[in-house]
Amino acid sequence: MKDSFLYIENVSKSFDDVKALDNVSLAINKSELFSLLGSSGCGKSTLLRIIAGFEKPDSGKIFLDGEDITDLPAYKRPLNIMFQSYALFPHLNVSNNIAFGLKEDRLDKKEIENRTSEIINLLELNGLEKRKIDEISGGQQQRVALARCLVKKPKLLLLDEPLAALDKKLRIQTQFELVNLQYKLGITFIIVTHDQEEAMSLSDRMAIMQEGSILQIGNPVEVYEKPNNEYIAKFIGTANIINIQKHQTKNNFFLSSELGIEIESSENKLSSKCLIRPEKINITKSTMDKKINQENSCKGIVKEVAYLGSYTKYLIQSKSYQFYVFQTNNFISENLNIKWDDVVDCSWNKEAIFLL
Amino acid sequence: MLSKLKNYKFWFVFTPYFWLVAFFFIPLAIILKISFSVSEWGMPPYKDILEINNSGDFILNITSGNYAFIFSDFFYLKSYLNSLSLAFTSTLICLIIGYPIAFYVAKSKPKIRNLLLILLIIPFWTSFLLRVYAWKVLLQGNGILNLMLIKLGFISEPLSLLYNHYAVILGVVYTYLPFMILPLYGYLVKFDLRLIDAANDLGSRKINTFFKVILPLSLPGIIAGCMLVFIPVVGEFVIPELLGGSDKLYFGKIIWDEFFVNRDWPVASALAMSGILFLIVPIVIFQMSYSKYNFKNE
Q1: What CATH code is carried by the domain that includes residue A284?
Q2: What chain B residue is nearest to A152 in terms of C-alpha separation?
Q3: Where is the domain boundary, A204, A235, A266?
Q4: Residue B296's pLDDT is what?
Q5: DSSP three-state, residue A21
Q6: Terminal Cα distance for chain B, rounded
């Protein structure tokens, strides 16, 4: 683990008896785009501030590129942080903001100029060099903040909620730009975010945090399809969690008292809960006379319908259990005919069941 | 118009203007008038500018002699320069003492911050005169300070701490320090602490961060504080009167003497007007160039 690019070893941190980080260990590879995901107060920002050097951990160590940087002051660390509020200097213009770090490193004038104009070209900030910070748009400010970090050629770039301040359309466009930039430059990125969609679409790997601990580390597919626990299952995307009991005789079979059906899984594990994602359930309008009595299927009543363009959300009630079903609108067909209070047949594959 | 007068908003807007005209512009105009009039024995001690004599002719009593007089006597210019140097020195000392205090107050937790602000403001609840008198008691020959120094064995004879221009500087700094701290605090409390983190992250040591980020961003507060101290201190009269000696004469005291000792109102008014002019012109030039600088910002 210590040969990882960034290795965080048993780091703990408390503020006034409140544990912000509880014995956190984490290894991040070179050139990886890694996300720290969690709701507010989970400790992700504290971890970021400790990596940046603004806070000292109570215990534990941090290694960057094989070097112990735990006691290195922030201004000496070969990494940079982009703040959520950008923290651009309002008394300096765009190019002086970008050149600030290079001037602090006492590089010679020629090199400062070259590197500044190079990064201005890369981030398409040409023509804004002499503007004040409050004279440029939010998206431009975000790129200046990015440029100010990247111009220093850091080994590691920390981004604190980099897209939170942008409006939705710009956010999606910037997401792709950020990924492209990271790929082009090969710099290791650590992104802190509370937005699970953002983390999913940006990251190579991500860590989900709660109450100062890391619950799971994995790539987006692993985290979505195979969450470690119910909290993660519900935090990432929409989850239908069903209480189950192991079938007495049949292997891989479970009973759901809420649904009153048998559920078949591809695994044979002892568990009391299973996850089924809404998009993995098929629904069709029920033909009333056809009685289904099969595993992994049930009848239900449509409680809510939300047409969202590319897909439609349904809330289905079956006996005492309510669950979500997402159907992609590949064809404008019979699915559109499913309305409130319709009776529907629901079914899913046994591979869709994930035992928690 | 009538409907306008009934509109309460009109009165809200009008009241400050009324105040300004009644208590600032009219008195200023009166002083300006007196400064151009001829002095005489009487009540008031100057001739009216426009007189009608017995035969019904208008007589204009206007003179620029008061101005000519004060500019011909180096004594007045010297007292003005003394006041400027007092104002400059005490403003600088207030800034050096006040900036760290303002920064500390602005950066403490809100609960403690309010307590510290109250501590700053509490002295205002006592009369300013009393507070300056208190310094007199502290500094006099058998005052606490001298007694302590003698008891501790640093000196054998009491020092004459009072009635010199150092005592005046001390009194001025003590009195005007809150006027420096409060505007500075106003700017520093709005200061985004993440800018310090950002500078730190970009490779800036603490000293550099202060000079390159914190100081330039608190410049408006520094200017406001300095103005609030400098301008009134130039005309300060009470503190030099109570704590000062004969080693330096100050402008405010000279004006007072001309008004009440010599009863030469026209000369006193001319001094007051010249003082205002000498202060206003540089300040206006400064303000204009500063706002231009702020507008262009490099």
Answers
A1: 2.40.50.100
A2: B202
A3: A235
A4: 47
A5: strand
A6: 48
Q: How far is A266 from chain B (nearest CA, A)?
A: 51
Q: Residue A82's closest chain B neighbor by CA?
A: B198
Question: Are B173 and B94 in contact, with CB atoms under 8 Å apart?
Answer: yes
Number of domains in chain B: 1
Q: Are A270 and A325 in contact (CB under 8 A)?
A: no
Q: Is residue B1 part of a domain?
A: no
Cα A7–A216–A174 angle (5° rounding)?
Answer: 80
The verdict on a CB contact (< 8 Å) between A152 and B202 is: yes
pTM of the model: 0.78
Please say whether the beta carbons of B34 and B265 come within 8 A.
yes
pLDDT cut 70: percent of chain B above it: 96
Residue A154 touches chain B, beta carbons under 8 Å: no
Mean pLDDT of A93-109: 92
Residues in chain A with CB shorter than 8 Å from the CB of B194 are 83, 85, 87
Nearest CA in chain A to B206: A75
Q: Do B201 and A92 touch (CB under 8 A)?
A: no
A contacts of B294 (beta carbons < 8 Å): none
Q: In this complex, do A91 and B205 lie within 8 Å of one another by their Cβ atoms?
A: no
CATH number of residue B234's parent domain = 1.10.3720.10
pLDDT score at A339: 85
Contacts of B298 in chain A (CB under 8 A): 92-93, 96, 130
Q: Tell me, yes or no, whether A325 lies in a domain.
A: yes
Nearest CA-CA distance, residue A130 and chain B, Å: 8
- Please report the DSSP string for B190-246 in residue order: T--THHHHHHHHTT--HHHHIIIIIHHHTHHHHHHHHHHHHHHHHT--HHHHHH--S
Q: Give the position of tokens 């008195």.
A: B27
Q: How far is B253 from chain A (nearest CA, A)?
A: 42
Residue B223 lies in a domain: yes
Do A175 and A254 belong together in one domain? Answer: no
Beta bridge partners of A218: A206
Q: Note down the domain range covering A316.
A: 240-355
Mark yes or no for CB contact B298/A92 under 8 Å: yes
Q: What is the mean pLDDT of residues A320-348?
A: 83
Asked whether the beta carbons of residue B194 and residue A132 sit closer than 8 angstroms, the reply is no
How many structural domains is chain A composed of?
A: 2
Q: What is the mean pLDDT of chain A?
A: 89
Say what percent of chain B tops pLDDT 90: 30
Q: Residue B240: its pLDDT value, please?
A: 87
The nearest alpha carbon in chain A to B293 belongs to: A91
Q: Would you say residue B26 lies in a domain?
A: no
Does A266 or B181 have the greater pLDDT score? Answer: B181
3-state helix, strand, coil in chain A (%, to 5): 30, 35, 40
Smallest Cβ distance to B201: which of A52, A91, A105? Answer: A52
What pLDDT, in 10s, does the model give residues B89-113?
Answer: 999 999 999 999 999 999 899 889 9
ipTM score of complex? 0.81
Considering the domain architecture, whether residues A55 and A169 belong to the same structural domain is answered as yes
